[in-house]
Amino acid sequence: MSVELCICNEFDTSYEREALHRFVNNMGVRFGDTDTLCLILANYVIGGRQVDLTVLKKDAIVVIELKECKDPFKAYENKDWITDRGHKIGSNGLNPFNQIRQYRIRWFELLKENRDRFRCLRTAQNDRPFWYVKGFVAVSPSLHNDTVNKISKDSWWFRLCGLNELDRIIGFETNKWMNFSDDELRFIATELLSLKKPKNITPSAEIHKLEEQLRQSADGLLRILQTKDEKIVELEEAAELLNKKIQEQDELILQLRQNKEQMNSEIQEKDKLLIQFRQDNEGSDKEAHQISIEIQNYKDKIHKLEVAARQQEEIIQKKANAQFHFVTKHMLFSDNTLNNKQKTSRLMKLSQKLGIGRNQAIHIIKQTIQKGKTNT
Questions:
Q1: Which of 4, 119, 141, 323 keeps 20 to 30 A from 61, CA to CA?
Q2: Which segments does the entry list as coiled coil (predicted)?
C-alpha cells in the first residue's frame, strides 16, 4: 500500500505533532510496499469541524481524534471522560466520543452530497452506505491497560485504541459498500476538502533493506542467547543429577556407619561376655581364644567398611570437583551473557549443591582463571 500524506495546517501542540510523526512512520513501514493507496489527511476542516486525522482507503474511511493520556480513565458516550487523577479528556464541551460522532456526521453529509462523483456510491438505494465511516479515538502514546470502555456495542462504528496499535487496526478495516479508486481518493482530499497535493511517504528500498538486516541480526542474536540458555540448563541439569547421585552415596555411607555402630555394639557385648567368661571360667583358655578370634574378625570387618566409606567419599568428592571445574571453565571463558558478579554468584550456588566447601570452590575458580590466562 503506497502511503500519501495531506496536511492542511501544522498541529498546535507538540504531542499531536509527535503522534502524527509516529503514525505516519508506522503506516509507511507497515503498508508502504503494497500497490493499494492509503491516504492520510491531517488537521483539516470538514463542515466547520477541525479533524485531527482521517485515513482514506479503497474500502474504508476512518476518522481519528488524537488524545494524549498516560493514566487510566473511563470512557462514556454522554459523560465526561475523567482520569483516575481527575483530569478531564475532551474539548469544546464535548467528550471524545461525541467529537468523533460530529465528525462522522460531517463525512456522511459530504459523501451523500457528492454520491454521483463516486462509482461505488452513485447507485446506493438508501443512506446506509454513507454511514459506514468509522470513528476512532487514538490515545498517545498508548492506551493504559486499566482504562474502562463504557461505550455501548450498539455504536459499532466507534473504537478506542492506543496510537501504538492504530496502524495495525486500520489495516483490517473494510466494508462492502466502499470501493474507491486512487483518483477518487485524491479527489476527496484535493477537491472536496481543498487540501494540498498529497505527499508520498513510502519508505525507500534502502530503508526496507536495512530493516530486514536488523531483523536478521536480531534473530541471530536471539538464537545465540537461546543456545547459551540451553547449555546453561544442560549444565544445571547435569549438576542436579550429580547432586542426586551424591545424595544416594551419602545414604550408602550413612548405612555403612550405622552398620559400623551396630558392629561396635556387638563387639562391646562380646567383650563383656569374654570378661564374664574369663571370670567364670578362668581355666577355659581355648574358648576364650575362640571368642577373641571372633572379636578380631568383627574388628577387621569394621576396618574394611571404614576403608570402603573413605574411598567412596573420595570418589564422590573427585567427581564433584571435576564437574565444578568443568562448569567453572565453561561459564568463565565461553558464556558472555553474564557479568563476572553473576558468574561468581551462580558458581558459588552450584558449589553448595555439589557439597564443595566455600574455600575449595574459591580455590578451583582462581585455579581455572590462572590456567586460562596461562593458555592464552
A1: 141
A2: 225-315
